[in-house]
Amino acid sequence: MIGKLKQNLLVACLVISSVTVFYLGRHAMECHHRFEERSQPGGILPLSALGGSMRTTLRTGQNLSTPFVYNKDMPLIFIGGVPRSGTTLMRAMLDAHPEVRCGEETRVIPRILAMKQMWSRSGREKMRLDEAGVTDEVLDAAMQAFLLEIIVKHGEPANFLCNKDPFALKSLSYLAKIFPRAKFVLMIRDGRASVHSMISRKVTIAGFDLGSYRDCLTKWNRAIETMYTQCLEASDKCLPMHYEQLVLHPEKWMRSLLKFLDIPWNDAVLHHEELIGKAGGVSLSKVERSTDQVIKPVNVEALSKWVGKIPADVVRDMAVVAPMLSRLGYDPHANPPNYGRPDPKVLDNTRRVFKGEFQLPDFLKEQSQPVINLEQIL
Questions:
Q1: Which of helix, strand or coil describes residue 79?
Q2: What is the tens place of the pLDDT at every residue in 31-40?
Q3: Contact, 119 vs 14, CB < 8 A?
Q4: Among 30, 37, 105, 149, which one carries the catalytic annotation?
Q5: 20 to 30 A from 39, CA-CA: which of 63, 85, 105, 321?
Q6: Which is nearest to 80 in space by CA: 175, 177, 188, 180?
Q7: Model confidence over 137-148: pLDDT tens digits?
Q8: Which residues in 95-114 are b (16+ Cβ under 10 Å) and which e?
Q9: CA 172/CA 238 separation, integer angstroms
């Protein structure tokens, strides 16, 4: 009896969620179409058409009659990966480019994508939705509109808009389907380093047991395999980026990235720390756990902090616990690993970091920082 009641409640929740997203999407699409009618045709307008250096944010009262056309065919950029893999650094470096805006994590995007994935996996639920006329086409249109509204409206306008929600790339294939011109950057980091960072900095992620390196490495392996597989399947749209190589040789890899994204080169991407909190620059969140790290220039301080911190039994079984390490080019038996030699500028940055030259500015300080809570993502 109790089991039947739970089943009925679950079905009711799924139907309510489906209808909610459908109507949110419909409302967003109606707003979008009305907005387009007031705007000039031809896609997203260059910043020069918005008044040259004018880069006011939509959150702080920009006039919505300003021509700024956006649609599913615009060149969106999605940055993702397992948390603690350099996703925030990557988006901060891109945010420094005058033609790009990423902004803080939205948090809602991976959750709504996970919900859509749940509906698709349930044959019974899909049948119910189809019978109600909520077909894949209807849901896709609603998802497009909903995600676009979030990405566009939560920050400044720019020629290239990007989203950084780490686990959104677990739905990479679906995002590539509904946004045909989108490109994806999958941040990859040595899983031992990512897991040590989660545990040492107490970054809670649903499904990860921070009291167990073995459990966290197993979950890391599963998550990165899901995203990496989809990235390879969309190889013309997805660029895997190793965190270690980015911080060792930032100019080389940022040049490759901007070429892949069809964005002109700009030296500002190598100096993101100089643009934090400035108009048209890099906006950081007080509550994201990486903020105190990305205020610093690119450096190698965090590369090998995990060495000597992982339990001996887990180190012994590393190749079995996390087989994706080998697949991604890491030696599971190397302690410490040899990631390579940094560029001279990175060495200089690292010396300055060790001297304590970079401190969290007052406007980013908060008494306590909440944990990341990504229910239903894993």
A1: strand
A2: 444 334 333 3
A3: yes
A4: 105
A5: 105
A6: 188
A7: 999 999 999 999
A8: bbbbebbbbbbbeebbbbbb
A9: 9
